[in-house]
């Protein structure tokens, strides 16, 4: 039986609020439950924007939009689609960092699935409680490494919620097909464990074999309950992130956004940068600040892209070096983790500045979560070595960027090619305008997911990630390149995601990851399938 009356108004997916026509109100038994005036969706959007813009604090804007999402889903997504440049910093980085830190305090109503350690043995039954039967896209975290903020435990649920909102807004994935999941295995954050409002398990994290068995059961339950779903791993600590990706990447359609999404969007920025430097990737040397899963993920994909230009992957890796808190990662170091070992340099141990002098990089890529590591001295040295040094400060939120856009441009007298993970404003230097590019993963993962799902791909491989990066780089106009911007404007992201989806599907077909052929009208099919929030 179709729902009528108050149940329709209480369901954010069916609620149109004051936009229900008089005829609809009569038919659906809504008469008297709404003010008598009928609004258009455009009027509802304008009213919501006025409320949003009246709030001065980012977290207040976040809470307003979150409440709107729970009340009227289509107005919420209409705002995200039509005003993405304004609201993305609210819905996701940098504001989502504070939202996660305060998640328990600001908790209003549940959104998504919480699977806790005590649920082991019953995870499939728990997933069956989700009311939407056709889940196609799952974003899951265990909350251990949220952005650059560390272990936030179950408060990290804000990340899957935010990522899925961007999937819907930026690529047009239907919200009905999306499921955010928190795997709660405890937290090492003693402040949260002792906080009166904390809603997660108040225990140390489950580790080792017990943890792996728990995640194995979860993945098996996803395959059983939602066999058509793409599973995205998000914000796991580096050892788990690397291990889980290697364990499951050949078992089901899945990927890790921190490793693979970050790698693809960074690669796109580097490809775009070659239009300024006029130097091929395979002829360049790259220095990474950080040796975690994000940094080595970029390095791995970059080496494969360089090999496409005619060198071996071994040669490509020799043109990449990594620095961590102990300095340059070198082969002579006693303890090297598996994901770092292939990139260890055959050089003496040394610090950041000495490594620049010895290695002479064309690009510095920061992925540490530690602000201020890219210094004026380092940028000055890069300028001595390169006419246009590439400086990427990819850590987020904004406060964790290795340097600011203004610093990079000022220290280099406007010569630097800069990109960041979080947004920075336009910079005026030497009478010219520089528009810093934001290497946000939202340029990649929505289109990647859309292409994988609509093509029926069985797996996601590196060729699909490289194809996504190449298509993203092609989306940047020459005018944007001339202003120093390596990524297209966010207002174009829905069309950019559709283009990336096409490239991903074509790559999956070439790799034999699709049964049969792509439909002849695949480009039109992608756009026709994109979720439309209009009434």
How would you describe this structure to a colleague?
The protein is of the alpha/beta class and 535 residues long. It folds into three domains: 1-39, no CATH class; 95-252, Malic enzyme, N-terminal domain (Rossmann fold); 260-440, NAD(P)-binding Rossmann-like Domain (Rossmann fold, 3-Layer(aba) Sandwich), CATH 3.40.50. 44% of the residues lie in helices and 10% in strands. The protein has helices spanning 6-10, 22-27, 41-53, 58-71, 73-82, 84-91, 95-101, 123-127, 158-171, 190-194, 208-225, 238-248, 257-277, 293-307, 313-318, 352-359, 376-385, 405-411, 445-455, 462-474, 478-482, 493-510, 522-529, and strands at 113-116, 137-141, 178-184, 230-233, 254-256, 286-289, 320-324, 327-328, 363-366, 390-393, 417-420, 427-429, 432-434, 437-438. The protein has a seven-stranded mixed sheet, sandwiched between helices. α12 links the parallel β4 (230-233) and β5. α3 (41-53) packs across α5, α4 (58-71) packs across α5 (73-82) and α16 (352-359) runs parallel beside α17. The longest helix is centred in the middle third of the chain and has 21 residues, at 257-277. The chain is globular and about 75 Å long.
| Structural class assignment | alpha/beta
N-to-C CA distance: 22 Å
Largest sheet: 7 strands, mixed
How many separate helices? 23
Question: How do the strands of the widest beta sheet line up side by side?
Answer: 8-7-6-9-10-11-14
Strand content: 5-15%
In oligomeric terms, what are we looking at? single chain
How many beta-strand runs? 14
| CATH-assigned homologous superfamily of the largest domain | NAD(P)-binding Rossmann-like Domain
Give the overall silhouette.
Answer: globular
Report the top-level CATH class of the largest domain.
Alpha Beta
What is the total number of structural domains?
A: 3
Provide the residue-averaged pLDDT. Answer: 96
CATH topology of the largest domain: Rossmann fold
Q: Helix fraction?
A: 40-55%
């Amino acid at each position: 039986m179709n729902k009528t009356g108050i149940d329709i108004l209480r369901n954010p997916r069916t609620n149109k609020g004051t936009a229900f026509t008089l005829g609809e109100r009569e038919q659906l038994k809504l008469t008297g439950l709404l003010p008598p005036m009928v609004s258009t969706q455009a009027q509802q959007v304008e009213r919501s924007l006025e409320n949003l813009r009246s709030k001065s604090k980012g977290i207040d804007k976040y809470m307003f939009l979150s409440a709107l999402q729970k009340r009227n889903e289509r107005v919420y997504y209409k705002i995200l689609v039509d005003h993405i440049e304004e609201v993305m910093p609210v819905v996701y980085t940098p504001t989502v960092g504070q939202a996660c830190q305060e998640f328990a305090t600001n908790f209003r109503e549940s959104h998504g699935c919480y699977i806790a350690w005590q649920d082991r043995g019953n995870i499939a039954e728990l997933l069956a409680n989700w009311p939407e039967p056709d889940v196609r896209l799952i974003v899951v975290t265990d909350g251990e490494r949220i952005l650059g903020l560390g272990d936030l435990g179950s408060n990290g649920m804000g990340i899957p919620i935010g990522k899925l909102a961007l999937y819907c807004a930026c690529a047009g994935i239907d919200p009905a097909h999306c499921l955010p999941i928190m795997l709660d295995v405890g937290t090492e954050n003693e402040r949260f464990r002792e906080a009166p409002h904390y809603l997660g398990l108040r225990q140390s994290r489950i580790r080792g074999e017990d943890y792996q068995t728990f995640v194995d059961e979860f993945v098996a339950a996803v395959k059983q309950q939602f066999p058509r779903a793409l599973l995205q791993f998000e914000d796991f600590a580096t050892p788990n992130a690397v291990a889980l990706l290697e364990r499951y990447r050949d078992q089901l359609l899945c990927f890790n956004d921190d490793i693979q999404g970050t790698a693809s969007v960074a690669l796109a920025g580097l490809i775009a940068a070659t239009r300024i430097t006029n130097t091929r990737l395979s002829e360049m040397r790259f220095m990474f600040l950080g040796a975690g899963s994000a940094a080595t993920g970029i390095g791995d994909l970059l080496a494969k892209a360089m090999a496409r230009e005619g060198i071996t992957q071994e040669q490509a890796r020799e043109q990449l070096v990594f620095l961590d808190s102990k300095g340059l990662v070198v082969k002579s170091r006693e303890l090297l983790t598996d994901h770092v070992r292939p990139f260890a340099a055959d050089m003496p141990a040394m610090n950041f500045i000495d490594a620049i002098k010895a290695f002479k990089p064309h690009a510095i890529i920061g992925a540490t979560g530690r602000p201020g590591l890219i210094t004026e001295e380092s940028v000055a040295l890069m300028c001595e070595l390169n006419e246009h040094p590439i400086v990427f400060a990819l850590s987020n939120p904004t406060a964790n960027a290795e340097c600011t856009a203004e610093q990079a441009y000022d220290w280099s007298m406007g010569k630097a090619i800069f990109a960041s993970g979080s947004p920075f404003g336009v910079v005026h230097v030497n009478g010219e305008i520089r528009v810093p590019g934001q290497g946000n993963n939202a340029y990649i993962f929505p289109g990647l997911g859309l292409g994988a799902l609509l093509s029926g791909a069985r797996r996601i491989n590196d060729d699909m990630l490289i194809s996504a990066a190449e298509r993203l780089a092609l989306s940047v106009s020459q005018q944007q390149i001339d202003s120093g911007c390596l990524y297209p404007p966010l207002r174009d992201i829905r069309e950019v995601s559709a283009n990336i989806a096409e490239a991903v599907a074509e790559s999956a077909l070439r790799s034999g990851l699709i049964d049969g052929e792509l439909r002849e009208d695949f480009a039109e099919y992608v756009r026709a399938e994109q979720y439309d929030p209009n009434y």
